[in-house]
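#structure-requests
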Amino acid sequence: MSYLMENYSRLGYYFERGEGCYLYDKEGKKYLDMLSGIAVNCLGYNHPALTQAICEQASKILHISNLFRIEPQEEVAEILVENSVKDGKVFFCNSGAEANEALIKLVRKYFYDRGEDRYEIITFEGSFHGRTLAALTATAQPKYHKGFYPLVEGFKYAKFNDIESVRALLNDRTAAVLIEIIQGEGGVNLVDRAFLEKLYGLCKERGILFTIDEVQSGVGRTGRLFAFQHYGIIPDIFSLAKGLGGGVPIGAIVARSEIAKSFTPGTHASTFGGNYLSTVSAKVVLHELLERGLLEHVEKIGSYLMEKLRETGYTPKGMGLMVGLDLPDGISARKVMERAIRNGLIVGTAGINTLRFVPPLIITKEDIDLGATILKDVLKDILKEEETKG
């Protein structure tokens, strides 16, 4: 009997160790990991620089609280700002949901401080912003809302890539839009460039804050440090988490300084946010991305992943190393995922019929070749089984 709550559909695997892009179970079987802890383990497993930094920091201080200054926290904040909004400030927390919760609170506090009764936030159908109550309400997928009513007031849902559906929701209370450049849980759906540009212009025209959820798409996942950088736009606030710590829990929001001023002492906090362990880890991740050519590698290897996935006969979608593969109706992505894992390939799902690939950013062509071979064999077997049933 397990003493854990049953809120996860866990698979029956115990992994004992990892190396690079590979995991090993208790029996020593080797698995190619193209899920990386759901886009978290961006440097793979047992990365020398990350492992060394964590061990060295563990021998000094793990946590001291934000009652005191933390040097690596200030260094990571500088790197994030200098490589994004330029005139900005950073708040650290522990997860993507917490980052989006902070983003939502900052939007409301900003307009409150300006004496404006603006608090509504427009999000998009298919989005996913987290499991805390406000972030859950921001998530425009009814299946996640069931059982948690009443939801938080002040959220409206527009259609993804439909500017007229946004216009229809605007009123004097509209404070912000919150969008993912690539919807992860919603099916790895990529934003349309023309739509994003119109949305950005509309926000500037109406004095609406333009905010972006970069929890999954950020930190090099798309071949740029942040996905919005592919579009030549700068958000007012954006959220980060997942890959930022390379496996150590950390989240953050980056906001323009004018907006960040609304978080004064006592308005928002996080006990563990930005502690020594998490920010030392983030420093390593950012160094690998910005100073050691990892961003360029992601851009090139992402194109190769797309190319190999096309060999399945289906069309991949996404950007960089955040890729989805839609399967035919009637073919369960969960079934393909489970069969692939049995055959030594770890992939994820994003909805009923979409496979999700978010491998470590260090993945090689040889790794991708192996993964594509396993996937093609799995799909071939499952399609044959379905034909036999028919």
